[in-house]
Amino acid sequence: MESAAKIRRLVLRDGRSVRSVSRETGLSRNTIRKYVSDASPPRYQRQVSPIRHKLAAFESRLLEWYELEQKRPRRERRTALQLYEQLVLEGYTGSYSPVQRFIRDLKRAKPWSGEAFIPLPFQPGDALQFDWSEEHVVLGGVAQKIKVAHFRLCHSRKPFVFAYQSEAQEMVLDAFVRALTFYGGVPRRVIIDNPKTMVTFVSRSKDRIYHPRFLALMNHYVMEPVACTPASGWEKGQVENQVQFLRRHLFTPKLVFEDLEGLNAWLHLHCDELGKRSHPEQPERTIDAVFTDDCAQLRPLGRAFDGYVEKTGRVRSTCLVQYASNRYSVPAHFAGKLVSLRAYADRIVVVAGQEIIAQHTRGFTKNTSYFEPWHYVPLLERKPGALRDGAPFANWQLPKAMLMIKDHYMDSKGGDREFVDLLMLVQDHGIEMVEAACELAVEQNTLRLPAIINLINQQHDPVITPLPHSYDYPHLTTRPQANCKRYEALYVRHEGAAL
Prior knowledge:
The chain is an alpha/beta fold. It contains 18 helices and 15 strands. The chain has five domains: 36 residues; 47 residues; 171 residues, Ribonuclease H-like superfamily/Ribonuclease H (Nucleotidyltransferase, domain 5); 62 residues, no CATH class; 83 residues, no CATH class. The protein is elongated.
């Protein structure tokens, strides 16, 4: 650049000839004429594209993969790094950079429109951003959609993700409790969208009315909720970018797990691994290192919020109460009564007054009844025949010894009545004691009900341990003598009292 400026001054300002300047500088006359005619800064321009020697044999394969990925949904497309890893498996021995440049050139060949944003700085412990995403996974061999809760501490960029079957309000509450526990403290505010589970009304002046249950969560942790302007995702751009990044790097291709618990354990490990990456604004430090600055400013966590959504319902005559599209059993004596259902992310708790009367694992199927057979045992006292065909007792997983006794009783006439009587003993003595008695009965081959009741009583009644030595027994100091007149004195005294 300095040589071009000097040549232009010599020719255009000082009036020197091209030949004399060429002799002085050693540059060719064509070069000098080019500098004089063009005022733009000189630059090097590659005339021929670089030859990718090791990639040349794989370019057609890579192009085929790239075109195939463009036909997939955006969330399922593989990244250049994943395509490189696949090439290595097929024999490619070069580095990742040529593959990255090849994919970049393919993308640049297509028209696109860019957007400009204003960077938003955040102080340590200031803000937490939250958003949902929908991902496709395979759980238990079944392809399905799941909802993933994304959190991101704005200063350190520390991520946290957790997967659910839906994004109902109880999932929102549970996700916040898990995220704050993961971070080990509470930031000053949280930046969210405007879903109905958190914001019930947005006025023309952009004022918000928050959902009472979500507001209870905010009040419990003393956090300020900040709802974005509708359709303005850039106001929480960090978590929006996180959704796209994790979709490409974690959920592409489809993840395969046995259940949601295994998936969440895997996601938790990757959240820890992401903390080892360099911070985008402080490249000399990792995200975990900057996270220590956040931790110093986060407020103490305190007691965890009880994140449930409550609903009142009446128990049906079938001892079932409905939540969403599923039904859950309660003890039989609550049939026809009003109860409260507390829906958590992973369980349903049924409450009558201040007493918890039933708990069930949360079901995410449709039109399914979830039974606890012990809730129906008192009804068997009047209808013992229902033990054979009743829906609550189908595939009932009783202890092994009790199942053996059940099979023995049900083979004989009236055996269902005897087994119901055995089940009724559980209400008085507990399942542990009855199970232990049944195990002893199977060992001793005494399966009759009276024998089992006797074994239960032996466990229930205290056993008096005999003294080890005879000389420890108490001894009489005066030898007793037979005297029948003592009985006559008692008789006379009794007669006198009667008169």
